[in-house]
């Protein structure tokens, strides 16, 4: 990706600096400054052991009027008790000082090793330096500053015309690289210069996350620090408050696309991943059971090792489908396709199926497993990757 | 293990023969003949894609008066539709002919590759041969005949004095060897010469399985063919029908022990497993949440790769605990111990904890992770193993 490939978002300035939280040579601290009057929404991890910054961010966002985000890599500030909370608050206060805003207008985020205290002084020293370097051109550097062991930055953008004005959307994310930080923390920041009313934005971030980050599986674990933030700076165009307007529909579609592209990029950069697989479940009675089956298939270690081996082992697929706990599933109505190759028909091996045809699909770097439950009209999909030797190597490597 | 190390169970005769279901040189068909008047109970897989023999066995056991079991290795007769059911019934009929009993008095079991039809004629040819070789000394051969890719047979026995008579219990099982059959089918057969009333035996098999096979995790997948059978031949001692009698308590304890020893042997022989780990959850409000946390820890790929690496990565442990979905969990009350070394205290790193102490425990081939939730008095435990490079190699190998 060329330098400065991401467009500017009027109303949002960024600065990345090297706070030396770990002994890295690279930037590890990102400050995002948001203009007054912007709307900010976020979703956070459901893990009961949520990290200190998550606790503080949830508290601050309740009051609205958020003006800055501070993200550090290298230390998750998780499982750090009261001192962790105090450290997160101290960072917010330092940002507030530097930007002349209130500390409760700052959302803190951390990703990295858990159970160790933040090197607070390093962050406090770096924050004013970052505040002096804020720039509207900072998105590409930002995407790199939040990486932990991601092999590449994850960025995307869209442009939409709304009421005659060109609206821009930029998204950056970090994903499932766990060698050093030991945690598959996913962080995503999406910003637009559109003006979206706060209640609409709150709904939009939930919808977007539900169609993107909540539909991917690297290994079924949820981190203590996961968060996704959506910023509408309001710098361009009219205020959008009607969820049934064509303008909002178009804008929403583009914002959801940005989330999906970032989520897929995280799966593709999953630890040791060599395959990117869509699991599509159709013919379900409802959305819940469709997702149950999709995740059971997409998270089964036996399925994931078969993906790695390019082995169209359909016995493992039916086993996983059967394990999903779908009440009253009639297995004699279940069909399974590997791309367009039917492998299971009425619960058994499809008449025309050949190992060669299945093998040809499983050998591709990207393909779709489609399960038809034959129970209804609902369909859902998730994205997953394989379990490789490298997954074990990466995750079994001693923390250094 | 020396030959013929397992004792006889009066009232139960066995024969193992080579039906050549696969191109193996070894025995792959086991016939168990049970004397008239015995009680037989069983539990079966909850997988919706249950195999044809499971469907037939569930139907037959409803009528009681079971007189024979037929178990084949090498082909699971799963995902085989109506023809699979017909094949399982034909096998039962052949056993009935050979033993002069009713076909509905036979329980069929299969383990092996799924989605392929049984080589029926080979089984029909082998069944009369087996019927001619039935012997009260057949348990050790039986344990080997039901193996698929298990690296060793799993057997155990106990002896208990009940009302002045010596009662014997024998158990054999096969476990999580998946190279060839592609499925981690668990089969277990436990027999005693005690006389146990059918309703009590039905309860006993459920209790025994719940404390043993339902508390192990190799990779979180449940097979299409899993089954556990408990036979009380009634050849020795008085009929036991009072569940509150001291005799029954003693007998039950010994039978449960046999189940637990077989379940643990399956984990220890888990594919590529190098560690045997007990996950103990205490201080839970109820048994359900204790098991939820135990399985979340014991099945997390991040925890299992850390076990393999002998890396006391307690961040992954708290992450898994936090992911278990325990409503209202107060993480500030959570303690975690590695054997006797406290690693987490009040949700954070324990004051006296050192990496060296944690490392010493994680380097052992067997140890216990204890989680105290600080919410109540309930405790539960499960047994798990690590995820190794060999797990991926074994499961990624192409079916041959």
Write the layout of secondary structure elements.
The structure is a homodimer of 400-residue chains.
Chain A: E1 12-17, E2 29-34, E3 39-44, H1 52-61, E4 68-75, H2 81-99, E5 106-113, H3 120-132, H4 139-145, E6 154-162, E7 165-174, E8 187-192, E9 195-196, H5 198-210, E10 216-217, E11 227-232, E12 239-240, H6 246-268, E13 276-284, H7 287-299, H8 301-308, H9 314-322, E14 335-338, E15 341-345, E16 348-349, H10 355-362, E17 366-372, E18 378-385, H11 389-396
Parallel strand pairs in A: 4-5, 8-11, 9-12, 10-18, 13-17
Antiparallel strand pairs in A: 1-2, 2-4, 3-11, 6-7, 7-8, 13-18, 14-15, 14-17, 15-16
Polypeptide structure, described:
The structure is a homodimer of 400-residue chains. Chain A is of the alpha/beta class and 400 residues long. Chain A has 2 domains: 12-268, L-amino peptidase D-ALA esterase/amidase (4-Layer Sandwich), CATH 3.60.70; 276-396, Roll (Ubiquitin-like (UB roll)), CATH 3.10.20.340. Chain A is built from 11 helices and 18 strands. Chain A has helices at 52-61, 81-99, 120-132, 139-145, 198-210, 246-268, 287-299, 301-308, 314-322, 355-362, 389-396, and strands at residues 12-17, 29-34, 39-44, 68-75, 106-113, 154-162, 165-174, 187-192, 195-196, 216-217, 227-232, 239-240, 276-284, 335-338, 341-345, 348-349, 366-372, 378-385. In chain A, the strands form 4 sheets. A 7-stranded mixed β-sheet of chain A has the order 10-18-13-17-14-15-16, sandwiched between helices. A 5-stranded mixed β-sheet of chain A has the order 3-11-8-7-6, sandwiched between helices. In chain A, a hairpin with a 2-residue loop joins strand 6 (154-162) and strand 7. In chain A, helix 2 (81-99) packs parallel to helix 3, helix 5 (198-210) runs parallel beside helix 6 (246-268) and helix 7 (287-299) crosses helix 9. The longest helix of chain A is centred in the middle third of the chain and has 23 residues, at 246-268. The radius of gyration of chain A is 22 Å and the shape is globular. The two termini of chain A are 30 Å apart. The model of chain A is unreliable at 178-183 (pLDDT under 50). The interface between A and B is large, with 64 and 64 residues. Chains A, B: Belongs to the ArgJ family. Chains A, B: It is found in: Cytoplasm.
